[in-house]
Amino acid sequence: MRQWTWSELKEKLQDDLDLQEEQFIDEVELLAYANEAIDDVEAEIHSLYEDYFLTSQSVSTTLGSRTVALPSDIYAWKIRNFMFDSGTLHYEVFPVKSLRKLPGIEPEENYRYIMRNDPAAGMQIRLYPIARETSSTNLTLWYIRNASVLTSDVSTCDIPEFANYVLQHVKVRCYEKEGHPNLPQAMAERDRLKLLMVETLENMKDDENDEIPQDFTHYEEHE
């Protein structure tokens, strides 16, 4: 699947719309329209098949600290899995189910966490007990991310399956501004591409493995 850069998308738009010498619609507006389209696609993806944006990232801990920073591109703080792996010890980091349990968590227990929306620092992960090591690799967070925003010519559109929709959305916005007679046809094509995008997302499936994994959580929590 082709990974379009903003420079490539912009060049195609300028060629298709004959905008090379255009002053009425500048590159800043084109970029804004493109990111507007990406927002539309992102909303559909998160609604229909959010695993399209499933990713992972190591998060850092500092000895004696309780706060862990969330990835900057996390979407709506959607965490799928939180894992600890030091090479010798491996386990899932579960959320604390009740705040009443916090005082009883012992320093040597497996890590657990709560989400805290701090008014100054924003959303954070808080570890219980406090971090026993300084590490940038022991904790891995699996989460749903945002779509990447286009900011410069070298920015890459990371929804390549739906780049045609992005292009068509921008064309519609340009025709709207110009009062162009091709606007109705452009809108119809944009709507067709959006319907195709929705159908594509609805048909995306996980693998065919229907085996139900055994749940050993009860035993792990009592180790």
Keywords:
4-stranded antiparallel beta sheet; single chain; 2 domains; 223 residues; 8 strands; alpha+beta; Immunoglobulin-like; 5 helices; 34% helix; 4-stranded mixed beta sheet
> How many domain regions?
2
Q: Would you identify the regions where 5 or more consecutive residues have pLDDT less than 50?
A: 212-223
Q: Structural class of the secondary elements?
A: alpha+beta
Q: Based on Cα principal axes, name the global outline.
A: elongated
In N-to-C order, the SSE pattern is HHEEEEEEEEHHH
Mean pLDDT: 89
Helix share bin? 25-40%
Strand residue content: 15-25%
The profile of the biggest β sheet is: 4 strands, antiparallel
Number of helices: 5
What's the total count of β strands?
8
Strand order of the largest sheet: 1-8-3-4
Radius of gyration: 23 Å
End-to-end separation: 46 Å
How would you describe this structure to a colleague?
The chain has 2 domains: 6-50 and 148-203, no CATH class; 53-146, Immunoglobulin-like (Sandwich). With 223 residues, the protein is α+β, with helices and mostly antiparallel strands. The strands form 2 sheets. It has a 4-stranded antiparallel sheet with strand order 1-8-3-4, with no helix packed on it. Strands 2-7-6-5 form a 4-stranded mixed sheet, with no helix packed on it. It contains 5 helices and 8 strands. Helix 3 runs antiparallel to helix 4.
